[in-house]
Amino acid sequence: MRKSEAEALIREAYEAWEAEEWLTAAGLFERVLAHFPDEERSAVWWYDAALAHKFLRDWAKACALGREAAARAPRGEGDPAFWNLGIAATVQGDWATARDAWSGFGIQLPQGEGEIDGRFGQACVRLDTGGEREVVWIDRLCPTRGRVRNVPVSAGRRFGEIVVHDGEPKGHRVVDGREFPVFDELLLLRPSELPTLEVTVGAGEVADLEALIELFVENGFGAEPASSLQLLCACCSEGTHEQLRKAHAGAQRVSLAAPEAEARLLLERWAGEAAVGRSWSGLEAVGQAPGGG
Fold first, then answer.
1. Which of 119, 155, 257, 285 is the most buried (most CB within 10 A)?
2. What is the pLDDT of residue 93?
């Protein structure tokens, strides 16, 4: 292939890119790179080809091409080639490559081998379930994975599942003056086995409701009062939004993440800890016939 032909193909690739025709763009980049893998601009073409496959959710190709891009990028300087490789390798379960990619980006990881199970702080992820979009809190296990800490209201989503998120924040949440990034979900990596239940509780004071939440959390489960949910338009959701503590006392539905038998025991324990002001009824699995209590 002559360089003039390669230049023409690269122009076509970026035209396809502008039209978001990712498969066409990636194919054109790869045709050129097969002949010119190490030209001055090749590092950019490797990166863009890998990124196009990331957009296509073709993680095997994104990982393979991402290795080539990272091999031509400076280490320890925050080059995005390492970040995208880290995401693709994580999805593939290639922990050696993922660890090397995060180190190449400049991130210090917990020592060890295999799956990364670190403490990277809290953040938010915007779940995408094919039409519904819900922002939930996560505990970050690595630069791109997090465990969901809310009980999602979106159908089919669960407390405790592990998701992979993108690296560029699309909004922020502010809690008590501290700002947390909101990332877009890329995929559900590991489902949770905890079912979602709903129950009507009567809480005489906000402290009663907080005690219920704390009791479930202490036992490794989740509880989400309906009064704590906030509805935002897409514009506000992708901006900087102050997260208000809106949970209130009184009768309301609460979403729970726990096996039904254990949920009943915890609800009984919670109600029995106060002489007045605490009650529950109508415990049911989401989407199934109601139970009682």
1. 257
2. 96
- Which of 3-17, 91-105, 120-134, 144-158 has the least mean pLDDT? 120-134
Report the alpha-carbon distance of residue 55 to residue 210 in Å, rounded: 41
Contacts (Cβ under 8 Å, ≥6 apart) of 130: none
Please enumerate, as own/partner, the contacts of 47-54 that have beta carbons within 8 Å and a separation of 24 or more. 47/73, 47/80, 47/81, 47/84, 48/13, 48/17, 49/25, 50/81, 50/84, 50/85, 50/88, 51/84, 52/17, 52/22, 52/23, 52/25, 52/26, 53/22, 53/26, 54/84, 54/87, 54/88
Nearest-angstrom CA–CA distance, 277 and 30: 67
Write out the DSSP string of 226-247. Answer: GGG-----HHHHTSEEE-----
Residue 193 neighbours by CB distance under 10 Å = 8
Positive or negative, the Cα torsion across 269, 273, 275, 280?
A: negative
Number of neighbouring beta carbons within 10 Å of residue 277: 13
CATH code of the region 3-105: 1.25.40.10
Quick one: pLDDT band at residue 291, thresholds 50, 70, 90? very low
Domain 196-285 CATH class label:
alpha beta
Categorize the per-residue pLDDT at 287 as very low, low, confident or very high, splitting at 50, 70 and 90: low
How far, in Å, CA of 55 to CA of 61, rounded? 11
Domain borders along the chain are: 3-105, 122-190, 196-285
pLDDT (tens digit per residue) in 13-52: 999 999 999 999 999 999 999 999 999 999 999 999 999 9
Query: Which residues are registered as beta bridge partners of 252?
Result: 201
The alpha carbon torsion through 223, 226, 228, 233 (nearest 10 deg) reads: 130
Token pair of 247, please? Answer: 């949970």
State pTM to two decimals.
Answer: 0.87
